[in-house]
Amino acid sequence: MTTVAFIGLGNMGSGMASNQAKAGRQVLAFDLSPDAVARAVENGCEAATSAADAISRADIVLTMLPAGKHVCGLYEAEVLPNAKSGALLIDCSTIDVESAKTVANMCQEAGFNSADAPVSGGTAAADAGTLAFMVGCKEENFTSVQEALEPMSKATLLAGSFGAGQAAKICNNMLLAITMIGTCETFKMAEKLGLNAQNFFDISSQASGQNWSMTSYCPVPGPVPAAPSNRDYQPGFAGAMMLKDLKLALESAEASGANIPFGSHAAEMYQAFCDNGGDVKDFSGIIETL
Ligand code: NAD
């Protein structure tokens, strides 16, 4: 039986670890929060006593942590000193490209195959096992990375070498922020012009304004019943997470010399949203500021 160490059982990791267990794998679960570990055990995982305990027994090590400093710290202190020879190491967190490359270099030097594999899809897709993974790894390791991620995934796509998964994720989420703000201001203007939200949705979702922020995550309540707008913008994908991703986009743009006027403006708007309580609301709640 394949043994998986799963470290980081938060909003995303909890459903992801549970889907690994549902696929018949032994999942050794660890989080700094005992409540998160208890929830994982209810969902078919085994409680590990520490990160080292989980990692030292695993064929595959999966991490789903908040940011680059957590991933670098855990790899240095726990993953690399304790992983079994031949273990496959995959980080699914959204982190900066430089940290992802640093982690990959450390893994290479220690003789491990590794990948950065951030996800798109949010908590609903994490629970349903339908995330999209964007992978940075050596081409010859991609099939084993795909197999490792399969119980959690509807699509696993190779973006390129180490760090490319994070680059794809950062670009994707900058586009998501821009389309969400555009969708919000459009629905607000439609309202001012006397259009009914459902009626405008029915038209625009069949016309050239159609986009994911509208049709899968509509920021006005009604047209998409599963969207956070129908539950007072409870996340979902928190404003703080979107702001984090936009800051990664700003850093990446500066480092690469990319010109991102809309991305920069989106970052300013999400900063203001978060400063006024939007950090713990879903990112689509930015509509309330317009
Ligand atoms: P979260 O804060 O809910 O979960 C992170 C978990 O990591 C927490 O339970 C925390 O206790 C644990 N943790 C932190 N440091 C640890 C350590 N050293 N050892 C063990 N556990 C540790 O965050 P989340 O929403 O699950 O997001 C995780 C990652 O996924 C982030 O990088 C985020 O950007 C990305 N992401 C989130 C979403 C979303 O919709 N929430 C969507 C796509 C990607």
Automatic annotation (TrEMBL):
Residues 3-157 form the 6-phosphogluconate dehydrogenase NADP-binding domain. PROSITE patterns: 3_HYDROXYISOBUT_DH. Belongs to the HIBADH-related family. SUPFAM superfamilies: 6-phosphogluconate dehydrogenase C-terminal domain-like, NAD(P)-binding Rossmann-fold domains. One of its GO terms (biological process) is L-valine catabolic process. The active site is at residue 169. This is 3-hydroxyisobutyrate dehydrogenase. It is an enzyme of class 1 (oxidoreductase). GO terms for molecular function: 3-hydroxyisobutyrate dehydrogenase activity; NAD binding; NADP binding. It catalyses: 3-hydroxy-2-methylpropanoate + NAD(+) = 2-methyl-3-oxopropanoate + NADH + H(+). NCBIfam families: HIBADH. It comes from the Bacteria. Its EC number is 1.1.1.31. Residues 163-289 form the 3-hydroxyisobutyrate dehydrogenase-like NAD-binding domain.
